[in-house]
Design brief:
Helix content is 21%, strand content 24%. By secondary structure, it is α+β, with helices and mostly antiparallel strands.
Length: 223
Amino acid sequence: MQSGVMWKLVSCTLCLFVSSQITLWSVSAAADDSDGEVKIEVLFKPEQCNPKSKRGDLINAHYDGYLAKEGTQFYCSRSDKDGHPQWFVLGVGQIIKGLDIGMTDMCVGEKRKITVPPSLAFGEKGKDPVPPNATVIFQVEVYSVTRGPRSMEAFGEMDRDKDKSLTKDEVKEYLKLQYEKGGKPNDDPFYEKIMADIFQKNDNDKDGQISANEYNIYQHDEL
């Protein structure tokens, strides 16, 4: 994106990450199965930058999406629903592939500008309001990086009764403990929402529990 392009100011103006202490450096992450590449610009990076995000980690982040060509904003997590930062597991397809690539090796407090080509975003068909073949730009800020609830190690920690299935109470308690380790406790409805989202996406047979097979996205770790 050329530096002369103006970002369109919308209701989520504060989503733009501006700081007098910003230091900029750029890296690129080549996509191994696409025609384009993800371009990463680090806007802010804490001096202590550990742990760093990796595939399978549970990430809590705000991110805002813009069309590269027009500069218009098409998504802002701060104004979506109740404005909570978004939870997702990195590297497993819960977000577009370009963000899975661009948000790897991020730490808590880090901010990035990530430019994603169409092949790693919304493709030839697009997804309303993103038009077909659109390059998109995301401004992201990470609030939490923890071992993902989809790792087998985490499964063992959550499965308190060792019956090789997870109840909603077990998942919610694990998320609560992990998030509060970062010093940012929340009220019960906050964790209820996250837990409900996890079950919606992973309780394939809708029996109110997540089995080991439903949970094991990698299909090679042993319980």
